[in-house]
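In response to the reviewer comment on reproducibility (Comment 2.3), we provide here a single inverse folding case reported in full, input and output, so that an independent group could reproduce the run without further information from us. The structure tokens appear first.
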């Protein structure tokens, strides 16, 4: 597995690097046999240390966790415990996920745009309320079942996930609702 361990305005020494590799390796070995790469970033916010970790699995799923504490090792331990909890919760589904698939998750390309936040600028344009595009990027849209999409959204800690439904190929969205439940938007079923 390939590790990328870095710090934002923090020097990450050899001791912390070896601690991260050893501890994270144990957690990932318990639940998923084939992680491909892990990116761990340490930063500081006032008096607290922050640890962000993103692990890509060979199945195409991504696991993400964050931790904060007053010490850098404690911040990593909080992050590792959160990732352990997420993987433990989905252990059976992670193992079954690969049985149903003949290959890894397929990704399609999609355009992603960042729009200007100030609506007053939109109104001043000649065309009316057209938003100003300030960035254009490529995004990847996975082809998943609804259950796998919910699992991916929760493992990544994302508020929503856009995916292509593997049953009918249409674009769907799963999202975390304000009441704590998960919402699923499927335009094809609205007819």
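Designed residues, in position order:
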């Amino acid at each position: 597995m390939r590790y990328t361990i870095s710090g934002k305005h923090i020097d990450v020494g050899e001791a912390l690097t070896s601690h991260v590799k050893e501890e994270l390796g144990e957690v990932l070995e318990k639940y998923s046999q084939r992680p491909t790469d892990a990116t761990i970033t340490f930063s500081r916010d006032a008096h607290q240390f922050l640890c962000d970790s993103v692990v890509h699995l060979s199945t195409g799923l991504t696991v993400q966790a964050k931790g904060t504490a007053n010490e850098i090792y404690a911040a990593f331990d909080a992050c590792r415990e959160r990732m352990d909890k997420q993987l433990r919760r989905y252990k059976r589904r992670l193992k079954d996920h690969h049985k149903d698939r003949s290959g890894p998750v397929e990704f399609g390309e999609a355009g992603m745009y960042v729009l200007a936040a100030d609506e007053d600028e939109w109104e001043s344009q000649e065309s009316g309320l057209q938003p100003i595009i300030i960035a254009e990027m490529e995004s990847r849209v996975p082809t998943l079942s609804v259950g796998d999409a919910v699992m991916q959204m929760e493992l990544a800690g994302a508020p929503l996930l856009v995916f292509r439904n593997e049953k009918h190929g249409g674009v769907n969205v799963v999202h975390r609702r304000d009441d704590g439940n998960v919402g699923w938007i499927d335009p094809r079923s609205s007819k």
